[in-house]
Amino acid sequence: MPSADSLRLEDQAAAALETLLTAARLGGEAAMADFRLGAPTSATVSYKPGDSPVTSADLAVDRALEPILRAAFPDAGWLSEETADDPARLAKPRLVVLDPIDGTRAFMRGDPCWTVAIALVEHGRPIAGVVHAPALQETFAASLGRGATLNGAKIRVADFASLAGARVAGPRGLIASFAAAAGFHPEPAPKSPSLAYRLASVAAGRVEIGLASANAHDWDIAAADVILREAGGGLVEGGVEVSYNQPRTRHDSLLAAPSAWLTQLSPALDGRRA
Predict the structure, then answer these.
(1) pLDDT tens per residue, range 65-76
(2) Does the residue 47 lie in any domain?
(3) Burial of 257 by CB count in 10 Å (0-12 exposed, 13-18 middle, 19+ buried)?
(4) Does residue 61 contact residue 31 with C-beta atoms inside 8 Å?
(5) Are 134 and 107 within one domain?
(6) Global pTM value
């Protein structure tokens, strides 16, 4: 039987999810003002160190949502792709994690596969999360102990007994090395420029397995992580659950899959025979 403390946390997570949903939809509306389906964005584009693009739409979503989310979670730390990182977050048991536009390059060229991703992290693990794809009219959401949904309908990871024909989403080179180590021939899966959307697609059973190369950040994955867990799957780094709100926000290669497959498949991610 769940403890009273765990039930209280579930209730808090469910209440937090409603706030995250509202914020994600507001962020999506703000971004859609500059999105042009099949055409270049009307937003101004600049580049951060490392040649990573950022648009005025990314910054507008960040500016719109930061005061809303800080007011809703006044005791939480803050981590956003478009806000300078404040180490003070490390002393906070809770953390709001925001990616204003995950898949900025897709947004820039008019590809609808981009998302607004928001998570609430508690003691290093996400307890509520939303991956909102406004141009696709899809919203993935989950909170601790309450399951995962897509547009309000329950979702679940794929149920499969064999890797034969498994669909794997991720970078081509990583898929090839992973599949060779795991000893199977994967089926092709649509490319997803938004990592959050790619991982949420595993949660929805659209693909069996999702992979991410090294250097994904907390804001790319935290929201999808709780959605995966609540849909019967998991996201692992080096074979263990991802830990958030650490000094380093970057991660090594990541595997998303149904929980029953994680232990078997994790070694293949670094090229070891599964």
Answers:
(1) 999 999 999 999
(2) yes
(3) buried
(4) yes
(5) yes
(6) 0.95
